[in-house]
Design a protein that fits this description.
- This protein is an alpha+beta fold.
- It has one domain.
- It is about 70% helix and about 15% strand.
- The chain is built from three helices and two strands.
- Strands 1-2 form a two-stranded antiparallel sheet.
- A hairpin with a 2-residue loop joins strand 1 and strand 2.
- Helix 1 runs antiparallel to helix 2.
- The protein is elongated, with a radius of gyration of 20 Å.
- The two termini are about 20 Å apart.
Length: about 110
């Protein structure tokens, strides 16, 4: 017999996995890109020729930050389903999330 997920469990699953899979990596890439930008500025002020390396790393991590920022702005969500003892993660839009929430409301009435 399959165990179905309640609406509260689904909301908890989505919020937990969204924070772990979208928000925390976005913050990480943002902080790392700022750190590399500060290193590049510091090395340029000290007249060290290696500041280009830190500038390239800033650009690299800033692109990843923008990808995660776009997911946060568009309110994408992540939820997981356990299948065959492996968690499967699904990225859904805000519209799909609201549709899934509304199906829980219609199933309860």
């Amino acid at each position: 017999m399959k165990k179905t997920m309640s609406k509260e469990d689904f909301i908890k699953n989505v919020s937990r996995n969204t924070v772990i899979r979208i928000v925390i990596p976005g913050l990480f890439f943002g902080f790392i890109s700022i750190a590399f930008l500060l290193f590049a500025i510091l090395y340029k002020e000290l007249n060290v020729k290696q500041y280009y390396f830190f500038l390239y790393l800033f650009i690299f991590f800033f692109i990843f930050f923008l990808i995660f920022l776009q997911r946060i702005i568009y309110k994408n969500k992540v939820y997981s389903i356990k299948r065959r003892s492996v968690d499967r993660y699904y990225l859904i839009s805000n519209k799909e999330y609201l549709e899934k929430i509304s199906t829980y409301d219609t199933n309860q009435t």
